[in-house]
Write a structure and sequence with these properties.
Two copies of one chain form a homodimer. By secondary structure, the first copy, chain A, is of the alpha/beta class. Chain A contains 17 helices and 28 strands.
């Protein structure tokens, strides 16, 4: 047995015993040490870097580790086997895009505007923003020897009086503390709950001053999790936060995670990674920001893809990936926060936006609701850029949808210096054609140094490299210059920031493998759009509107996205970035009973096109894996200034 | 700090560190070591005996420990203070009446007859033994690429077909294992649940062969817990078991336990003592006996007094004992087994027989239901002999009830050699007047030696001692003989078994303090009956029937009970022993929806007479604390053969 000590940057060390020959990444997983491994440990992504501080390990060489770095002790943990005792540094940077929870990004008026606009549009479509949650302050007569009604009857009576309901349900979690709460508050309390037809479900009892009724809308992405707390009465956003999905250490894509879930103890492990390790800390932090108690959260809504929904509730997802691809559920009524031990009122319903297929999930039905395309005459294209790309096309008469596997590139995954759109991310780039010098726009306060590059930055950079003739249609470097470097194998890269200019002391660059990964991602998206349109005998010029959604950031430059052949070449004014529409849709659901009903209607009316078995999709994909496309006529506005 | 090791007979040793001077019984409680202490540690009951094996303790002398025993190291733990390291033997005998779970006592045809008779009588009163639990075996079509309905819709559809219901609820605990269960059982499964109006709540899914629908009826007495498992379709008893209430170590009576509950962590401690330590092991054991899974228990019912109900559900009971004596609830709808983590289907409703006052609880409303007196023209007296004695009097037109504190004497508590009516208990005694030699009837197999004496045995013994002129009307010994011994203070006792004749090697006897305790208990009962009758201007000769209930055992000799002035002196054929009517009533509730409704009706129509503030009760009590009574004319058939 050897002893491996994981020194976690910014955390406590973890010691594990294991046999020699055990894989270091596997060992870290067993020890619950978070190491980012989007490629699930096959050596391709280069994210799982660790530094051997003491002892040594057996390791394979990797193009992601330079000779100098190797000398310093850097290794890819997925490519290491334990060989005797050792001490391993797990750098915080390794989990840069997983961690870095952000809870205070309500400052952006742009962000708030997206929610307001969604609400406004839905209201115009006849959806009322009304729900049945109520709080009421009650004063009861103190019992005496002549008035010996027991506590629960006294409370029932007061609620009946105040709300004019016939039946009052007082569940266990309220009964448990009833005697104490009534007396501690001298018989004046605030009661919160759900008003049903002639009945009231009493969900919480507490002091008179705490009248908050809070909803929590959550987007569970494969890579990123985002949520908002909202006032269930006014709709005001109380707090917003996001974080990486803690399941990332079990693989970047849904397939790897389903495989992990199928192993012994896997259901619990994957569920814990999303619920305990990811959602619970964000909810707790947002509640603190908003100054409310978690128990004031009386309703939650979830926008997530089919697999994320299954892993979240701890339901076996293996049949999702195996023929005949049968999920355990599309929609689910009656799920409660207490079932999942979420830090909320245990009786709070958890509304899951309905899935419509194994690969088109609730994130898309919620997003479609938010986009409003289901209520329009004009033909709209809805594109959700996530780890999977999903496309919906149609109008009030019909809706077609399909999904393609884009990989995590849009959120910075599978890109050597990629990261989510948080502080330190390059979100926009322009390049001077002559000097080839880049001008960067970095997220964060004045003076924020560069950490990596996020989706919108990568689109800009590739588009600019292509426009300036620095790379060719295949994404290979064809010019030389001080910003362009090549490794021993001749692989080119473009340097955005030298080690000394970056936040982390490591060079920030984009290499040919990154560009190739990104071209595949954009190719998947465009070919899916192309195939979906063809399936209904439509062409690009029939598109009236394009709604682009996803965590890629409001900084996305549509012109550049068209330039590289990611989106169809339509007039730029037809494009609308609608933000994280899964989250906006979930927000509408948590606020409005009618929005919930409508989401289920939209889901029921949506037709699903399975691309993987669709004739022509593979050809379309291959044709799209060029800049902008093998058939350049499809992109008349794409520019390469040669 | 001193180290105390508790050597538990038949268990693992427990080591505690504490300061010198700490009370040994308190320390044992903190260590969760079960030591019987019905008097709650005031030194009066003598039950909390331990033996100091190593080291020493500071202790007060006690009349319960003989000089010889003291030399051997025996002490009352409540009267000891720690003084340095020591090792303490906690004898199994100390908890004789708490432990000794019995699960296989269905053998007695008498026992079964009581349930059958109750069912028969209730059916004659128009109560149908019908409930809404159903199991159904379903075969579903295996999904294919052309039949891609998700699992939950497939199941819903099959249930709708089979049961003709419109709506099907599939809760979390079923959804969680749905995918796996359907596939493991090749799409043929047994589904169990509750059929509601046009809806079915699916509570369990499993293999086709497991179709059991099980109810669990529980009587939670202050001293003793008894339960039966029953087939919800046929009503057949599947298993029956009983055990001491594990809360006994926090005091013999409800008042001491309410005080304990009010201390920090008390709610959890008292609830754990009844749920985790008492009910859960019995349920698990009965399920094993019956060959069913705990999850097949789809409904539970509870007959318990008001305080036991509060402690059981973990609800603050302190207001029950403090003016104005307001319980948190009389009746409670919507409690589920999962709320209390009972080993049953988590969705199984827990039906609590309604309380009607702080001291007349669900055990009495359930018992009244079972007695059938609510449907009779004749005037009936219902007496429940427990730690509290409760009396109900009336007929179909009116029902009056009251409660008195009898103490645990009827169940063998507060009696030096007392025990519950289980193996080794003397349950009947006759005495030869001339030789004063007793003839004992002992519960158990042939050759079972005597361990102690249970309630019915004590009644017989006192009645016989009185008839033979061995004790006088005050319960003091007035004859001498080989069976009669006196201690250094002159206190007399009657020896039933010499040390060498007993199972435990300790003398089994009844002393004057025991007799005095018992006379107070029987005096409390009789004076309650007397006061209740007077309150409605009735006399003893107007009583048509007397139903005696309680765990005192079917061996109770009514003639002897009248002889000592415990029950009113009416014709012996008017007496009926109806066993543990709280349990029989709970059995009716778990089996029959109409019985539940009727119990609530009975409770709503019952008038409660508060004895503690009733003028005349104290005088009546004092007058009844004689054999048979100060006014002997009330007992014309009582005999003292002088």
């Amino acid at each position: 047995m050897s002893k491996v000590i994981f020194q976690i940057e910014g955390g406590s060390p973890v010691t594990m015993e294991c046999n020699d020959g055990e894989n270091l990444l596997e060992l870290a997983r067993r020890a619950n040490v978070a190491i980012d491994a989007p490629c699930s440990g096959n050596g391709s992504c280069g994210k799982c870097r660790v530094k051997i501080l003491e002892g040594e390990v057996e390791s394979l060489p990797s193009r992601h580790i330079s000779e100098e770095e190797y000398q310093e002790g850097w290794r890819l943990s997925c490519s290491c086997k334990v060989k005797g005792d050792c001490t391993v540094l797990v750098p915080d940077i390794a989990s840069a895009y997983q961690s870095r929870m952000k809870t205070a990004d309500l400052s952006s008026p742009k962000e708030i505007a997206i929610f307001e606009e969604c609400e406004e549009n839905l209201k115009n479509s006849g959806i009322h923003f009304v729900n049945r949650y109520r709080s009421v302050v009650l004063t009861m007569a103190e019992p005496t020897l002549d008035d010996t009604m027991p506590d629960n009857e006294r409370l029932t009576w007061a609620i009946q009086e105040a709300l004019g309901v016939e039946k009052v349900e007082i569940p266990f979690c309220v009964m448990e503390k009833l005697a104490h709460t009534l007396r501690e508050n001298a018989w004046t309390v605030c009661v919160k709950g759900e008003l049903r037809e002639d009945a009231f479900l009493c969900m919480e009892i507490g002091k008179r001053s705490d009248t908050a009724l809070v909803g929590c809308a959550i987007d569970i992405g494969t890579t990123t999790v985002t949520m908002v707390l909202t006032d269930l009465t006014t709709g005001k956003l109380l707090a917003k936060g996001s974080s990486g999905n803690g399941q990332i250490r079990y693989g970047a894509d849904v397939i790897n995670r389903i495989i992990e879930q199928g192993r012994p103890g896997g259901k619990r492990k994957l569920q814990d990674a999303i619920v305990k390790e990811t959602l619970n800390p964000i909810i707790a932090s947002l509640c603190k920001t908003a100054g409310i108690s978690c128990r004031s959260i009386l309703r939650l809504s979830i926008g997530a893809n089919t697999t994320m929904n299954h892993l979240f509730v701890g339901v076996d997802a293996s049949s999702v990936r195996m023929e005949p691809y049968i999920p355990s559920f599309f929609s689910w009524e009656g799920l409660l926060a207490g079932d999942l031990k979420l830090p909320a009122n245990p009786l709070a319903p958890v509304l899951i936006a309905p899935n419509i297929g194994s690969y088109v999930g609730g994130d898309i039905t919620a997003g479609t609701l938010a986009s409003g395309i289901w209520d329009k005459d004009e033909m709209s294209l809805f594109i959700d850029l996530g780890t999977n790309g999903e496309i919906v096309f149609g109008n009030r008469d019909f809706l077609m949808s399909c999904a393609c596997s884009a990989g995590p590139a849009f959120e910075g995954g599978d890109i050597s210096c990629g990261m989510r759109a948080t502080d330190g991310a390059v979100e926009a780039v322009t390049i001077d054609k002559a000097t080839m010098e880049p001008a960067l726009s970095i997220i964060g306060d004045e003076g924020q140094k560069c950490v990596g590059i996020c989706g919108s930055g990568i689109i800009d950079l590739i588009s600019e490299l292509f426009r300036c003739g620095i790379i060719n249609a295949k994404g290979l470097f064809v010019r030389e210059g001080s910003r362009i470097r090549r490794d021993a194998h001749g692989m080119g890269r473009f340097v955005l920031a030298e080690p000394e200019e970056s936040e982390t002391g490591r060079e920030v660059s984009l290499n040919e493998v990154d560009i190739d990964n990104f071209i595949r991602a954009k190719g998947a998206i465009f070919s899916a759009i192309d195939t979906l349109l063809k399936s209904v005998d439509m062409t690009v010029d029939m598109i009236d509107k394009v709604y682009v959604a996803g965590g890629i950031g409001s900084g996305i430059n549509m012109k550049n996205a068209v330039n590289i052949g990611m989106f169809p070449d339509v007039e730029l004014e037809k494009f609308h970035y609608i933000g994280n529409s899964s989250l906006t849709g979930a927000y509408a659901m948590v606020m409005s009973d009618e929005a919930c009903t409508k989401t289920h209607e939209v889901a029921a009316n949506m037709t699903y096109l399975e691309l993987s078995t669709h004739p022509g999709y593979m050809d379309a994909f291959v044709a799209a894996c060029f800049l902008p496309h093998t058939d350049a006529r499809l992109f008349p506005h794409s520019v390469q200034e040669v």
